[in-house]
Each structure stands twice: as C-alpha cells, then as structure tokens.
Amino acid sequence: MPARNFEPVEQEFVEAGVDPARWVKALDSIALATGSRGAILVPITGGVLSNVPFTETVSGAMDEYFRDGWHLRDERMRAIPIITKRGVADDFDGHSADTIAKHPFYQEFLAPHRLRWYAGVKVACGDDLWAVAIQRTIDQGPFSAEEKDELARLSSRLSTGAAIARAMGASAAAGALEAFEMSGTAVVLVNRHGNVFKANRSAELLLVDDVKIVRGKLVAKDTRATTALDGAIQSLLWRSTGGLSAPIALPRASRRPLLAYPARLSNSTANALADCQAMVILIDPDSRPRTPEMTLRSAFRLTGAEARLATQLAFGEPLEKVADQFGIAKETARSQLRSIFAKTGVHRQAELVAVLTKLL
C-alpha cells in the first residue's frame, strides 16, 4: 500500500494552533487522508470536556456521547497506556473481535451511528496528552498494521500544532490577567481540571486568611461555600459556550463575604488545548473604588505626581492650569508630561488624552 500524504494534515494542525476556529478543518483533513468517517480531538489525561473539537460527520454520535454519559464509560480508554507508549492504538489493543461484537459501547452506542472502528493518535501538548480519535464506519473496516505504523510516525509531527495552540492560549491568558489588573479587578485563571493555575496581584492580595488557594483550589473556611464554588466551576466548564455564572458568597470572619463569579469567555472555549478554560472574578464589597490615579499608576507605572497630572489632562484641563492648581512650575509640569509621553508611548498631548480617556 503506498504511503499516505499527511503533509496537508500537518499544515492544517499548525494553522489550527494559531487559529482555534480551524480545528474542525484540521480534523476533517486527517479523516480524509485516512479514508475515515470523522475525527475528534480528546484529552487522554485528566478527563474530557464537552468543548473538544470534532468533525460535523460525527456530531450526532458526540451529542449522545456526552448527553448519555458514554464519555464516563468509554471502553477505548483502556488503550491509553498503549497510545502513550507507541503513539497509536486501535480497538484491538483493548478488546478481542468477540468482545467488540457484543459489548454495549460498540453495539448500543456506536452501531446506531454506523460507527465501529477507530485509531487513536497521540498528540503531546506540554504536560497534557491528547489524542486524535479517527472514526471509521462498520463498512470502512479497521485500521491495518501498515496504517497504524504511518499514524505512529505522524504522532510527533502533529504535536507542533498543539504546542502552538497552548502557547497562543498562554499569551491570551496573560493578556486577560493584565487587563483585569489594570482595572483593579481580582481574577484567578482555571484550567480544564477546575484547578487555579494563575492569579493576578489583586487576587493574591485578597486570597488570605478566610479564602485561599489550596492545592489548586479556591477554598473558604466555610466548606459549603467551597463545595458550591467548585460545583459552579465544574458546571461552567461543561458549557459549550461562554458566560458568567451567578456569584458564590465566600464568608469571611471580620468582613463581608468575598463574591466569586465563575466566568468562561467565548474566545477561551474555542481553544480546548489552552491552559485557561475559565476564570473566577473576585469582588470585595469592602474595598474602596480604585481612583483614576491608581489606575494610571498600575497601567503605565507612572509616579504619583505624573498620575495626578495625567488624570487632569484626560479630563480636559490645560497644562498651565493644572500646574497652577498643583502649585508647581510650568517647566516642572512639562517635564512630567514628557515622562508621561515616554511611559505611555505617545508623542502629543492629544494622543495622550485619547489613550487615557479610554481607561478612565
């Protein structure tokens, strides 16, 4: 049998790493290259989420897979050690032909969709392991030994796209943390396991004493609140779309409860391979609103004097009037303005006002 051309598949996986909206197209390409019905990209460590990408040709089966709990009793998970070691596995690595002919997973779940055979191809993604589960119909027949050898060689090359997707997700998560920090909003980022893996400075300052991060979990002294928050996060992770959940009150001994809002942004749900799959926004009812000066100091590392001057300019006050108001020489005000220009990356006062008014 002539070797298959997997170059288009490799290219599609790299492009999907850059643009998560292309994962379905990448999976279509591997189904086409192998003469199969469809394909799914699933994690083989740490459990499955409902937002994994799959081809339209197997959408009916995937709806049932999650709706009826087949993902919790997927017989093909028996082959995970073989996929991990060899880079590829198929149905016969976990079951005999007699078992396949009788087992409910094959006969009650797969057969009504005219599906039966698969090959799982390992895709390494940092600490995570994923697999492209290529699906074949009953008539298309199982994968041959030669085909499995080809897919095993393809395995390492597909990991490039996964690595890009993970890096892009990390960049987006860092940007989200920075944006929330600029507004003085406390946020922690949550991975697909429901564990906190990063928090911004505002969150770190809040998470002491009665509410903390313990072994990757947001934990309150009130165990009922902890359970409620964990349940809300897990429920959010299983949504196929983004959204903001109702707040969970996390009691504190000497202050009003900290309010935790689990949230899932639509751009994060599109990238199943990204570390960040959700976030928890933390609101402290006892905190004072952040002043404009505080916002500018945090965003651009301005000094206190520079932040006060920039705020007044953003509100439309002339430089000379601000200098008189603060009791400083006009040349001192001009010197502070030049420093503000350098820190904010602008060259004219009109540009500065345009930038600052968006923040304030």
Name a few traits of the molecule.
15 helices; six-stranded antiparallel sheet; elongated; alpha+beta; 360 residues; single chain; 47% helix; 12 strands; four-stranded antiparallel sheet
Q: Give unreliable regions as ranges.
A: none
The chain-level structural class is alpha+beta
Rg measurement, Å: 27 Å
Secondary-structure element order, as H and E? HHEHHEHHEEHEEHEEHEEEHEHHHHH
Number of helices: 15
Report on the biggest sheet: 6 strands, antiparallel
Task: Tell me the number of strands.
Answer: 12
Q: What fraction of the residues are assigned to beta strands by DSSP?
A: 15-25%
Write the layout of secondary structure elements.
Layout: H1 7-18, H2 23-33, E1 38-43, H3 59-67, H4 80-86, E2 88-90, H5 97-102, H6 104-110, E3 115-125, E4 128-137, H7 145-182, E5 186-190, E6 196-199, H8 201-206, E7 211-214, E8 217-220, H9 223-237, E9 243-244, E10 248-250, E11 258-264, H10 266-269, E12 278-283, H11 292-300, H12 304-314, H13 319-326, H14 330-344, H15 349-359
Helix pairs in contact: 1-2, 1-7, 11-12, 12-14, 12-15, 13-14
Report on this model:
The chain has 360 residues and is an alpha+beta fold. The chain is built from 15 helices and 12 strands. Strands 5, 6, 9, 10, 11 and 12 form a 6-stranded antiparallel beta sheet that branches. Helix 1 packs antiparallel against helix 2, helix 11 packs across helix 12 and helix 12 crosses helix 14. The chain starts with 6 loop residues before the first helix and ends with a helix.
Summary, kept brief:
By secondary structure, the chain is α+β, with helices and mostly antiparallel strands. It is built from 15 helices and twelve strands. β10 (248-250) and β11 (258-264) form a beta hairpin.
